[in-house]
């Protein structure tokens, strides 16, 4: 039986997330599967991947063929790196301890890169928020100036009316006597 490591679609229209499954190559995409080894959510930034590393490594070593997307996911998570290093151990190129040290160093570098990317995205988001806040403050200041100008005009018009009203009342009062 030819096995595949592939994605099984879930979620609603326009907001898909995927289960990473081991399935017979003849089974439908969302149909029967042998084992579920993880999940993949591309809707977050960066994408969220939960993977049972040991089972994924087992299936890759057993000969299960991943699809293109799952191959990228497994590669990013280090499954193929570990398979490569275990091949070196089998050939006697280095020991299992050296293999683990190399893998840990690779994983530490990978984690640092991902954290730097997250920090960069966070900084860009903060800068965007600050720029939007400053633009909103400028718009609000312009509106406040316009309102103040209208109020000043209205007050000046009322003062002018009041100044004219006593002047008109005075001659009327003199003629009444």
Q: Could you tell me the mean pLDDT?
A: 89
Strand order of the largest sheet: 4-3-2-1-5
Helix content: 55-70%
Q: Which strand-content bin applies to the residues?
A: 15-25%
CATH class (first level) name of the domain at 1-65: Alpha Beta
Please give the oligomerization state of what you see: single chain
Structural shape: elongated
**CA-to-CA gap between the ends?**
120 Å
Tell me the radius of gyration: 36 Å
Tally of DSSP β-strands: 5
What is the count of helical runs? Answer: 4
**Structural class label:** alpha+beta
CATH-scheme architecture of the domain at 1-65:
2-Layer Sandwich
Task: Let me know the CATH homologous superfamily of the domain at 1-65.
Answer: Ribosomal protein S16
CATH topology of the domain at 1-65: the name is S16 Ribosomal Protein, Chain: A
The succession of helices and strands, N to C, reads: EEEEHEHHH
